[in-house]
Structure formats: structure tokens, C-alpha cells
Amino acid sequence: MRRIRKVAVLGAGTMGAAIAAHCANAGLEVELLDIAPGEGEDKNAVVRAGFERMRQARPPALMSQRVVERIRLGNFEEHFGRVADADWVVEAIVERLEPKRELMARVEETAREDAVVSSNTSGIPLRSIAEGRGEGFRRRFLGTHFFNPPRYLKLLELIPTGDTDPEVVRRMRDFGERVLGKGAVIAKDTPNFIGNRLGSFAGMQSVSYALENGYGIEEVDAITGPLIGHPKTATFRLNDTVGLDIAVGVAENLYELVPEDESREVFRPHPKLKEMIRRNLLGNKTGAGFYKRVREDGKTAFYVLDLETFEHRPPENPEVPIAEEARRQGDLASRLRFLVSKAGEDRHARYIRDTLLPYLAYASRRVPEISDTLEDVDHAMEWGFGHEAGPFRTWDMLGVAETAELMRSMGLEVAPWVAEMLEAGNASFYRREGGRELAYSPLRKEYVPVREDPLAISLDRLREQGRELARNDSASLLDLGDGVLCLEFHSRGNSIDRGVIEMGFRALRELEREEVVGLVVGNEGRNFCVGANLGEIARAVQNGGAGQVGESVDALHRLLMGFRFSDKPVVAAPRGQTLGGGLEICLHASRVVAAAESYMGLVEAGVGLIPAGGGTKEMVRRTVSRALREAPNSPPLPFLQKAFETIATARVSGSALEARELGFLDEDDPVVMNADHLLHHAKDEVLDLADSHTPPEGGNDVYAAGVQARAALLVAVRSMQWGRYATEYDGVIAGHLARVMTGGDLTMPQWVPEEHILRLEKEAFLSLLGNRKTHERIEAMLKTGKPLRN
Questions:
Q1: What is the value of pTM for the model shown?
Q2: What domains appear along the chain, each with residue ranges and CATH number?
Q3: How far is CA 363 from CA 15, 126, 197, 289, 414, in A?
Q4: 446, β-bridge pairs
Q5: What does the alpha-carbon distance between residue 188 and residue 192 come to, in Å, rounded to a whole number?
Q6: Cα-Cα-Cα-Cα dihedral of 487, 491, 494, 496, to 10°?
Q7: Does the keyword Lipid metabolism apply (predicted)?
Q8: What percent of the chain is predicted at pLDDT more than 90?
């Protein structure tokens, strides 16, 4: 099997086009082919329609519109020969066996003998699709089941047949994880594999139980989201998101395919679901499902479906007291144990118990039918459905023995291997031993090491090994090995507060040690850093501590300039939201290694401020100043306007690729598809830079365009105000921003030191912080999480 550089995706439907998009996101060359229409001259009409739907998809399938240049369209009639150039051929056509078999016969004739061939089927047995093909084909054929949307859902199920070469499976798993950024699990060739088999059971059972026992849509969603470790879409919103026709279709398909499943009746959809489909109440894609988005008095409301009349009514927001009581218990394990313990006295806790435990018991009965390992089952639900913990990790949280006994008292069948495990004196599905995590194997009847990703660095594991050098409530400093340190944030939202700055200065002092070669600024949180701690700033101002805020700005300047001019490389490793001060850290690093899903922006204008940690200065230095150094006769205004608009409109990138286009990342800054590999690659980058690293020289390296350029910037702001696209106060903020970006009151353009712009940043920041309207914006953001346009 050669290295995969070129992919042929056969089928430009929803999944095929989205798979093509994600492969292009990962830097691969893609041939996207589909059938030629029976009529008309344009034989690419079908593939082009699918391609355009993908381009318009929300959330976006593409990390940047520029990556479409890597996708070439074609049709099966004229362009099937392109399959011969592909290293990987993935089929994603209609879910019918015969068309798939016929297509595979053509692929076998055309594809290279060393090309991997796979199907994205979600329900048709892989062995049936490969039936009739030669031995060489069957050895390199397997299932590659992506979850929709492929860009965002981490799960990739790999399904080998009995003929698939194990080396092909290993290489595809490696490719999926390293190149596509997926979490790959090995599934058996059984109906709907792991994720949809368990997910469909849990989904249908949860909805049917609610409808049959008088639970309302809103109250179920209030208790089945983050409270129990599930996404905010909870139960009914999830069906609206997926599409009720899809959810029901998967369940009905499973019902037909698993006649031996002792619980197959669960897959029979509730009659009310069938009636909703008849009425086209499919969810978001038809504008109405269990919820309907309505505009009232200029605000958005989500009306709720009345399942008796099938009409939508205003939300009632029912009180669920047990939910708040459960939240106070702490972590997920504590919350779940509390809820299960209260099931006898509280109807909402009873709902959790009576839907959670059947799902856990069902998962036990499906192993080893759908998977040989508990970890792959757990990962399938964690990566495919966004669950904080899969079924066996959840069961461990509740206590295996006592939960198994509770299940039996409820009439739920527990798999015999669970009883065998307990009788042998094994109390949990997972345990740690000698620094390694082990999982119980129902096949081997013993604990085996959990597969570890060699490119994943666990900071918690390093902590267990005693490699945390310093810690406070907001940040830690750890030893990554080989002389590389890691500054980790763990404040609320990974925001920048006094504790983070204090640990940052500790990191700078550690960099002076001879044996230390460099620093990574990174963490394993969902978000790298959401910016300054607004609550801390608001409290300081309310208590008359504007001077204290000014001192904090000075401290942040010293810290970030310390990073920028460090004698040893400082590499930032952003992921997720990287906003405000979080982005300013990246802008001052020697290099940035960014997760592909990094959403970067200087968003201070949304809370009535401007970037004051050097972000404004850096945007001028990186755009205007850099352009003029490379081409001294270039007019500075176009570069200045672009940077000004990016900050003034609080523009946030939709990916790391877009962040590069906005000037937040340099061309030399690597983008990593798998966020789990981010710290590893950042550490490698430090080591690569260490021998040749020299800090920048400094001096007068920022071009200040002066008052005339400032006036030109403000013309565009006034136009937006006249068109009512910007408020009067937006203009005030923009005025401060324009003054800083053009160097203050300089009458003539000139080169100035970075400190000059930093001083102006601080003045503008403190001035805006003294304005009542800025306080209103900060308060709104803290209360609602959304910007206020006052």
C-alpha cells in the first residue's frame, strides 16, 4: 500500500461530496465522480449539483473555499479512467447492493493493483459488496464509514471483511488518524456497525420511553444534554439536527437486518414519529420538527411540537429541580450516580435511569458481536455522538457490580461475560496498572493494554509521572521531555487571568536554564484560550481598580514581548476557540502549530474594547509593515484597511486555513488535522527550531501610516453607520482602533518601535473601559455569551 496522496470519491451525494471536501481539507488531491444524467448535454450536471450543495452546506464542509482547487469533477461515463490514478478509491453511491457491486466490478478493472478500495455504506454487509471480486481486490477492500458531517465528527469506523489484509487495515487506521484527523475504530461487518447500532437503540428507546410515559419534549432535553455527558442537542433536538427521516430510516433498516437481536422491537419507531414524517416534520431541514424556529418581536424563539395536535406552541421552559441539584454534585460520575440513586423518588431521575441502563446492558450484549474491544465501542459513541463517556466507561462510573444487580432487578439482561468478569474478582471494565490503562477483554477473559496513539501527549499522564514543575489555580508548567516545557492553561474557559500571567513569567524564567531548549504554550481543553477574563476585568473596574487593570495590561505586554524576543523558541499550539488574548499569544510566538479546527479572532470590539495585548500592533506589523519591507513602493492603505476591518468587525476564522488567509497565521505555521496530535507536533517544532533560533532584532519595525490614513479608515466606518450596519458606539471603538493602528497623532508616515503601538493600545483600552457602553457590552457577554450592539 503506497502513501495516499490522491483520492477518487465515487458518488457526489451528501456523504460523497462531504468526504471529498474533507480529503481536500487534509491537502489531498480529489477526483469526485458521479453518474452522467440521462438527458441534457452537461454530463457533469449530477456531480456539479452535489458539489455545489456541499459548498453551500452549513456548517461549512470546507475549511476554506480555496481548497476546492484540489477537487476535480467528472462523470462515470467520460472520466472513470481517472480512478487509475487514485491511491484510495472510496464508494459513496446509493445504498443499494446491486449498484455497488456493479461499480466495484468497474473499479476492479480500472484501479491500480495497490490502491485501497473502500465503501462508505452504513448498512450493507461489506462481504456482499465485495462478492464476486478477485482475491487481490478483496484483500485491499474494506469499509470506511464516516459520520456526517465528516469534517466535524471525529469517528471513522473501519470495517474489514474476512478477506481484508490486516496490514491494509493498520495502514488505513494510521492514515485516518494522522492525515484525516479522525478517531478510527475497528468494527465487525454487522448491520450498522458500532455507532449506529448502539446510537439507534439509545435514540429510539429514549424517544419511545418519553412518549409512552408522559414526558414532555422540553423536559427531556433539559436533562439529557451536558448534564449526563451528552451534547446540547440532547434527545429531541438531536433528531431535528440529524433529520427524523434519517433517524427512523436507520432504525427501520436495522429492524429488518437483525432478526436475531433480542431487542429488535426497540428499533420499531413509535407511531407518532411516523406521523411526523407523514407531515414532513423532519427537523431543521424542513424548518420544523420537534422544534420550530420563530421570530417574535425581533427575537428568536423555539416553539415546541404538541404531539397530540402536531402544531407548534410557545416554549414553556418547564422547571426540572433535580437537574440543578445534580449539577451541584460535580463531575459526570457524581452526577450520574446521584440521578440513578434518586430514580425511586423523582420522575426525571427515573427517566435517566430507565433509558441509560437499558442502553448499557444492550451494549454489553452486543460485544463481541459488533466489536472485539470495549475501547472501540466506547470511542464510537464518544467520537460519533459526542458523548463524554461511552457505555462501558459510563458503567464504570456507576459501579459495575451494583449497576448489574440493579439492571437484573429491572428485568434487564446483562451479557454473561460481565458476570464472569465480576465472578473472577474484576470490579471494573477499565483499570490502571504500571502507568498503563488496561481494558477487560471479553474474548481473552483478561485485561489487555488499551491501544495508545503514539502521537498523542497526555498532560494528565505527565502529571501522574511527576513531571508537573509548577501549578496554580489557572495554569501549570510541565516537562514534555527532551528539554521542552509546556505552559498549560486550565482557568475557566482557559481565559487569561493573573494566575496565567504569573505562570507565564515562571515559564520565561525556566527558559533561561541551559538544559531547557524551548516552550510549548498549549493544552488539551476544547478551546485554547477565549481571551481575557472579562469577569475579573469588570470586577476590578467596578471596585475602582482601573489602575490595577492598567498594570495587568502592562504585565501581559511584558509577558508576550518576552515570548516574542525569547532566546529560545516559543511555539503556540491553538485549538478550538482562540480569541482575543489567546490569539495575541499566538501572534507573539516564534511559530504556531494550529489544529485545523482553530477558530481565531481578535473579538474585543464585541465587548466595546480593542485588542490591547499586542494584537493590534501585531496585525499592523504582520500586514502593513511586512508588505512594505517586501515591496517598499506599495501603497500601505489596502493592507491597513484589511487588518482594520478584520479587527473592527471582530472577524473569527472558520478554521486554521481561514486564519492564515486573515493574517493570523503565517505560511510557515503548520496545520494539524488531528487535535490529539497537536502537542506532539508543537514539541517537534520546538526541537526543529532550537538549533537555529534567533530572536527578532526589534527596533523601528512597525509602519505607522499617520493621521491621513486614519481619516481614510474612518470614512468606511461612517458609511457603515449611515447604512445602519454599525452603531454610533461602534464608531467610537473604531476611532480608537484607527488611531492606534496608524500610530496616534503622527502627521507623517514613519517607522516606530513596537512599544509605541503598545502604549497607544493601552491608552485606548483604558479609555474605552471607562465608558458605560463598554460596561453594558461586557455585562451582556457575561450574561448571555452573545455580543450586544448598543
A1: 0.94
A2: 6-186 (3.40.50.720), 319-452 (1.10.1040.10), 460-774 (3.90.226.10)
A3: 27, 22, 9, 29, 9
A4: 441
A5: 9
A6: -80
A7: yes
A8: 88
